[in-house]
Design goal:
single chain, 12 helices, 10 strands
């Protein structure tokens, strides 16, 4: 069903070193079935042809607004877009991804029908030239038309049955009362934490339709750096743990257990990977201090592994090699 195109949607697209992908993204945004759009391209100091490409798009389509700024990272670019957005609703698209042509018409129809403040949709993965259904556990809690308070939504985020991505959603502009935290990875998680804390009784509605196409593992993508992402998750969860007692203490233990589990995994990986350990030496030293204080009963791992990792980390690589050889010998 066609809806009256009276509400304006501001679509914020951060742009940085994506000249290979930008046109594919832009064609799906410019040609949306919903036409009342304000398309905000934020050139985040990109050193390639992207700034010129952005200006060229603006010359061809009066709905496109370009912000040129010094490089500040993804969060800073999104914030710059929020500052100039004039729409009734806001959407975020990453410039190496692309979207279904009817994405915003469908999301607007469903959010207005449900009278929610944010709508979240499932998404497809795009890799090696193929779209594929996303089977991540963080989409297992999606039910068409399900409405949750923001507070109940965050419980499911912690349970990892719904996602906290920013780009597969449409927001009422007046609900975005927080900025993305500049200079942080895993920034969406912190962004939603602050939104939920500020508006615990606001409403989130879900749709099982997949309108967003998320590109995986492109060269130079931050998410391709698994260790860096894990370190960001650890930092963000620590920040939340220091704050959550003040308004949602019942979630603290679950988040703490998740962080403890990830802390062990990061220590394990960096102890075995000398190259990565050298790159993240400062972080490794700080995390080892935390790891030494962590009670062994909170770590889901073999007691001997925990003991050696804690007190004899320089021997752990040899221990793993010996265990592997012993296992092969006994076969």
């Amino acid at each position: 069903m066609m809806i009256m195109q009276t509400s304006k949607i501001s679509i914020i697209i951060p742009v940085y070193k994506v000249e290979e992908y930008l046109d594919e993204c832009m064609q799906t945004v410019i040609n949306q079935t919903y036409k009342n759009l304000e398309i905000i391209l934020v050139d985040d100091g990109s050193p390639d042809r992207c700034p010129q490409m952005c200006d060229s798009y603006a010359e061809q389509d009066s709905r496109i607004k370009v912000v040129h700024k010094n490089n500040g990272g993804l969060s800073d670019a999104r914030n710059a877009g929020i500052d100039v957005a004039t729409g009734d609703y806001i959407g975020f698209v990453d410039s190496d991804d692309y979207i279904a042509y009817n994405m915003y018409e469908e999301l607007l129809t469903k959010i207005e029908r449900s009278r929610a403040d944010i709508i979240s949709s499932k998404f497809l993965l795009y890799q090696d030239g193929k779209e594929q259904i996303c089977t991540w556990s963080a989409l297992s809690g999606y039910i068409e038309g399900k409405v949750l308070s923001f507070k109940d939504y965050f419980v499911q985020v912690v349970d990892e049955t719904v996602d906290s991505a920013s780009w597969n959603k449409l927001y009422k502009k007046d609900i975005i009362t927080e900025y993305f935290k500049k200079g942080r990875n895993n920034e969406d998680y912190l962004f939603f934490y602050q939104l939920v804390k500020k508006h615990p009784n606001a409403r989130m509605v879900f749709t099982t339709d997949s309108y967003y196409k998320y590109r995986q593992q492109r060269s130079g993508s931050i998410c391709a750096d698994k260790t860096g992402l894990d370190l960001a998750v650890l930092a963000n969860k620590k920040e939340i743990l220091l704050d959550i007692d003040s308004w949602f203490p019942s979630l603290k233990e679950k988040i703490q257990l998740q962080r403890d589990k990830l802390l062990f995994a990061v220590i394990y990986n960096l102890t075995l990977d000398r190259k990565a350990r050298s790159e993240f030496e400062r972080e490794y030293v700080l995390l080892r201090k935390e790891f030494l204080k962590l009670p062994s009963h909170r770590i889901e791992a073999n007691h001997i592994d925990v003991l050696i990792l804690k007190y004899f980390p320089w021997l752990y690589s040899n221990f793993v090699d010996f265990r592997l050889k012993l296992s092969n010998h006994c076969k």
